[in-house]
Write a structure and sequence with these properties.
The protein is α/β, with parallel strands linked by helices. The chain contains 12 helices and 18 strands. The strands form 3 sheets. Strands 3, 5, 6, 9, 10, 17 and 18 form a 7-stranded mixed sheet that branches. Strands 13-12-11-14-15-16 form a 6-stranded parallel sheet, sandwiched between helices. Strands 4-1-2-7-8 form a 5-stranded antiparallel sheet, with no helix packed on it. Strand 11, helix 6 and strand 12 form a beta-alpha-beta unit. Helix 5 packs parallel to helix 6. The longest helix has 13 residues. It starts with 5 loop residues before the first helix and ends in a 5-residue tail after the last strand. The N terminus is likely disordered. The structure holds zinc ion (2 copies). The site of one zinc ion has 9 residues, from helix 3.
Length: 381
């Protein structure tokens, strides 16, 4: 596809942040984006959050093919729909989330986060049939469809399965992170672990995912919510957002502190850090019959250890959790309703950056000085 085809194919000029090689800075380039294929939705991106996964895929912890376009917490306005799309129309406000096939047994039983094609559909760098929709200014194909969207650009090709219609009375620019990081933390508590009123919860690592878990634990009625982190500012924010106690795990033995505060261990712990030593603490601080959820992503093939008897005899569990078990078309509107009621003030995690400042935003996210960086697109794409 080249610029000469533009008038005939409905190809649009766009700007996108392209990763050309492992760990390289993002290069903001003029690109061409093709029309939506059957069941696809072309979205004019308004804003897009930066998630830890963008950082580790740029650095090739997960082998996404390059050159390509990342970005997977986009929100925007439907520009055009492909054949067969009925649930959204041009002008609708939408949040984009992860992609799933809709056909495998996990999708069919309502667990799209565990789609058997999850990896190829989200990190494969193309549509399921191997085609892409984005070219650079020389007409060379760029890998796209990252998490079914590649939303580090002014337009994104999403799919009817991963586009969620949202109300127009909430600013679109804060909604994108609901599609990944925020729903991961909140969903782990509400959907996966099913925390109930009176339960005790320990959240290891209070970045965007961990703070979302803290807020969700308060929504669920947990009465002991312990935030653990090395960063005192984040711990202070966790206390404002619903944590009942905080533990500076750089200064205190994390397991002993959780056991002391909870009177012998917590019903639920959540490891958001992706570090095996922290995961071990999250397992060791559980009460009898407690469950540890894992949402932190270390490099592929990372191993961790636990004491077998200390898991088996007290009937404890460890659970991997992807995307907070979210059924996004239901869960994202739920989170928006909680936000509108003031019960889930996740906007307090957000710092905005201009799209052109994506590398600064990435650095701040990696350093932890910004909890949830959100890039705002230029008004005219
Ligand atoms: Zn599937
Ligand atoms: Zn993510």
């Amino acid at each position: 596809m080249s610029s000469q085809d533009q008038a005939h194919t409905g190809t649009r000029r766009a700007r996108a942040a392209v990763v050309r090689s492992k760990g390289a800075a993002f290069s903001i380039e003029n690109v061409q984006i093709g029309p939506p294929a059957e069941h696809e939705v072309l979205v004019r991106v308004v804003a897009v959050g930066i998630c830890h996964t963008d950082l580790i895929v740029r650095d090739q912890y997960y082998p996404f093919p390059l050159p390509g376009v990342l970005g997977h917490e986009g929100s925007g306005v439907v520009e055009e729909v492909g054949a067969g799309v009925t649930h959204v129309s041009p002008g609708d406000h939408v949040v984009m989330t992860f992609m799933s096939c809709g056909l495998c047994r996990f999708c069919l039983r309502g667990e799209p986060a565990y789609c058997s094609d999850f990896y190829s559909l989200n990190v494969g760098g193309a549509r399921k049939d191997g085609s892409t929709g984005t070219c650079d200014s020389h007409g060379h194909a760029l890998h796209d469809h990252f998490f079914g969207q590649s939303s580090f650009g002014t337009f994104a090709l999403a799919h009817s399965r991963n586009v969620v219609k949202v109300p127009k009375n909430i600013p679109l620019e804060i909604l994108g992170p609901l599609g990944c990081g925020i729903q991961t933390g909140a969903g782990a508590i509400l959907n996966s672990l099913k925390v109930r009123s009176g339960d005790s919860v320990a959240v290891f690592g209070v970045g965007a995912v961990g703070l979302s878990a803290v807020m969700a634990a308060r929504v669920a009625g947990a009465t002991t919510i312990i935030a653990l982190d090395l960063n005192p500012e984040r711990l202070r924010l966790a206390l404002e957002l619903g944590a009942t106690q905080s533990v500076d795990s750089g200064n205190e033995d994390a397991v002993a502190a959780v056991q002391r505060i909870s009177g012998g261990g917590v019903d639920y712990s959540l490891d958001t850090s992706g570090r095996p030593t922290v995961l071990r603490q999250a397992i060791d601080c559980l009460a009898i019959r407690g469950t540890c959820g894992i949402v932190g992503a270390p490099p592929l093939q990372t191993e961790a250890s636990f004491d077998v008897n200390m898991l088996m005899i007290p009937g404890r569990s460890i659970r991997g959790i992807c995307e907070g078990d979210s059924l996004a078309s239901e869960f994202i509107p739920q989170l928006i309703a909680l936000y509108a009621q003031g019960r889930f003030p996740y906007d307090r995690l957000i710092k905005f950056y201009d799209f052109e400042d994506i590398d600064t935003a990435m650095q701040d996210a990696a350093r932890g000085t910004t909890i949830k960086a959100v890039l705002r697109m230029p008004v005219k794409p």
